[in-house]
Amino acid sequence: MKRPPLMRSFKHAWRGLRVAFRAEQSFRIQSVAALAVVVALFIFPLSETERWILLVVTMFILVLELLNSSIERMADLMKPRLDEHVAEVKDLMAGAVLLASCFAFVIGWIIFWPYLSPFLHELFRIFV
Fold it and tell me: Which class does domain 5-127 fall in?
């Protein structure tokens, strides 16, 4: 029996996520960071707005990393890996992911600082 088109689309999407997770170290690292953010959403008494901001920023990073990986693979198909234009495309995409990741870190720091500050202060007092 033939699968409905929607089910086939979901199958391909899950396969794409598995490929990214297996083949892309950056995606694995960012997935672990995303999981840590999701866990933190349940630990800290954040406002609904803060929770949504963290979820949106976290998903944005993961989606951007998937786009980065896709564009890198497409560039490799079009030109040899050592071509300077391919290298520039890859560097530009890596720069986009880095910039977005730094922004996400700052947003996370701003939101979590009031909750982490007392703990870090106490930890610093114990060890110093």
Answer: mainly alpha
Q: Do 64 and 98 form a contact (C-beta atoms < 8 A)? A: no
Q: What ranges do the domains of the chain cover? A: 5-127
Question: Residue 72 and residue 66: Cα distance in Å, rounded?
Answer: 10
Q: pTM for this one?
A: 0.84
One digit per residue, the tens of pLDDT, for the chain of length 128 reads: 677 788 889 999 999 999 999 999 999 999 999 999 999 999 999 999 999 999 999 999 999 999 999 998 888 888 766 778 888 888 999 999 999 999 999 999 999 999 999 888 888 888 87
Beta carbons of 68 and 30 less than 8 angstroms apart: no
Please compute Rg for the chain using Cα positions.
19
**CA 92 → CA 35, 58, 68, 75, 112, distances in Å?**
27, 20, 9, 12, 30
CA distance 49 to 31: 22
Half-sphere exposure of 96 (CA within 13 A, CB side): 18
